[in-house]
Amino acid sequence: MGRVYFNARRESHALDGAYTVKASDSGKVFMLSATGGTVAITLPTLAGTGDDKAIAGLYYKFIVEEDTPANAITIGAGSAVIDIVGVDIAQNDGMSSAGTAKSNLIIGTATKQGDYIDMFHDGVTWYAESMSSTAGSITTS
Amino acid sequence: MAKERTPYATGSLLNMGTIDAAYQVLQSDSSKVFMLDGGGYTITLPLAADLQEGWYCKFVVRPTNPTGDIVITATTAIMDITMLDSSTGTDNTQHSNSTAGTAKTTIIFHTECVQGDYVNVFTDGSTYYVEAMSAVDDAIDHTQQ
After folding, report:
1. Does A27 contact B7 at a Cβ distance shorter than 8 Å?
2. How far apart are CA A17 and CA A34, in angstroms?
């Protein structure tokens, strides 16, 4: 069997304000800051159309770029369709949804540069995994 | 000569699949994200003799509380597992089911698993390297409960 090597780079995309993530952004790494106020990031939804529609296989990574951001950053799905599993440096897994899906992932002002959330969509639900170097700094609602 | 730039992966989609019964994973499944439904079945990875360096895939639990254990087997003890799970549970140690240098044959999603628990599998050609995370203490393990 022949091999296929993927030599593509992942495109990084700096965000420092509100943004609606597009399906065509799939594969991007979003670098997050919130210097001018709280930041709301909106994910594609099943009800969306065209480039705003959530489909199986979409994936994104969100990395905190601004060390201890000046304001909170919220990643919202519009409804409780995010299943997340994650831990932080204090062995706190409080951000894990543990079977009860969430609407929002909140990156707090105590997060450190490099803390991250990976997300993908299976056609029904958003799946997220996260890691943080400060205790309790990534939360859900 | 101008430096050649590799293309961006933007707009690409993950290669998704679903497993809800016993399955023999194929070499051609490399890069797939398998969503695990149901429960009570065994997933068999490519045999050690057939490993191809760079092969990888991901397994994600779709239902909270699978109907039975979901076993991923490498047939021989070639799985090195590093994992974290909830610190709230019987042993209060998040890494207790990591293999810590002693390779294992299986990794098991127990019925306590919740939606989103996952296992990533990668091989260098001789060993499966596994990383796992679960929101429930000991819900993912390398031995039968």
Report:
1. no
2. 7
* Contact criterion met (CB < 8 Å) for A123 and B28: no
Residues facing residue A126 across a β-bridge = A82, A121
Residues of B in contact with A98 (CB under 8 A): 86, 114, 135-136
pLDDT in tens, A50-99: 999 999 999 999 999 999 999 999 999 999 999 999 888 776 777 888 88
Which residues of chain B have a CB within 8 Å of the CB of A85? 114, 116-118, 133-135
pLDDT in tens, A9-59: 888 999 999 999 999 999 999 999 999 999 999 999 999 999 999 999 999
Pairing between β-strand A39-42 and β-strand B56-61 as defined by DSSP bridges: unpaired
Contact B113, B35 (CB under 8 A): no
Structure-block tokens of residue A61 = 């990574």
Give the separation between CA B122 and CA A123, rounded to whole angstroms. Answer: 25
Q: Which two tokens stand for residue B134?
A: 């679960």
Q: Which residues, listed in sequence order, are joined to residue B82 by a DSSP beta bridge?
A: B131
Contact A85 B9 (CB under 8 A): no
Please report, for the domain that includes residue A36, its CATH number. 2.60.120
Supply the DSSP symbol for A8. P
Cα distance between the two ends of chain A: 47
A7 pLDDT exceeds 70? no
For the record, the structure tokens of B98 come out as 């990591």
Chain A to chain B, count of Cβ pairs less than 8 Å apart? 111
In a domain, A69, yes or no: yes
Q: Which helix (H) or strand (E) holds B72?
A: strand B70-73
pTM of the model: 0.89
Token pair of A43 as six digits? 């994910």
Relative to beta strand A12-15, strand A29-32 is: parallel
